[in-house]
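Journal club prep — side note

Before the paper discussion, L.F. wants everyone to see what a predicted structure for a comparable chain looks like in token form. Sequence:
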Amino acid sequence: MRRADRLFQIIQILRSASRAPITAHDLADELETSSRTIYRDIADLMSQRVPIRGEAGVGYVLEPG
């Protein structure tokens, strides 16, 4: 999977999560990649001002906006 496609898929998964946090491990399983790749991708999305909120041990949530 191309990186751009994976970033788009992360946003779509977070959007459809209905406000429940999703862990990096769950995202990695769904996208068939490593958790470390998900951490890098989330950091990249956050640097591009995608409204993602994350907390260690809890997971990631896409905030409204």
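L.F.'s comment for the group: The mean pLDDT is 92. Keep this in mind when we get to the figures.
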